[in-house]
Hints:
The protein is mostly helical. 75% of the residues lie in helices and 0% in strands. Helix 2 runs antiparallel to helix 3 (35-55) and helix 3 (35-55) runs antiparallel to helix 4 (59-84).
Amino acid sequence: MNVGDWISHPANWAFIILGLVVAGAAFRVVTSQNVIHAALALVATLAGTAGLFLLLSAEFVAWVLVLVYIGAVIVLFLFGIMITRAPTGRDVALDHPRKAWATIVALGLFVALSWGSLRAFGTTELANQGEPTATETVGLSLLGRFVIPFEAVSFVLLAALIGGITIARKDLTPAEEVEREAR
Length: 183
């Protein structure tokens, strides 16, 4: 398959657009100087990744990504930031003096991994291995065989939420408690 054939497929255009959205949002996650903006860029990155999974006919994985990561983890992350009143602006003390080197290393790693992938797989096309697994089958397996680990993860998330609230809770001094009761 040459480049002209690849470009002629509309799904590949959707892949290019989603890939650019994911790459741009991921870049914004690591370069944002505001933690709220970084979290919102992470939402865009995860949503674009879910779109890529939809292009691959992996609907279940896409919706799990949306529900669990965007709907739970990011919301929990933002909730933790808001409830702890953590500083959301730029903190110069956290800047690393060698961030240019980190960028060079990251780009070098990307080039090495891309080159290795192309060298290993080349232009090999994936053969259709039959019908994709139905979402119903995956859901029944998850809530049948894997129900205990699924519930364990929900308890871990609940514990994290309770821990965040406990850490963020402001204890009142005795004078503040008397003043509060007087109101």
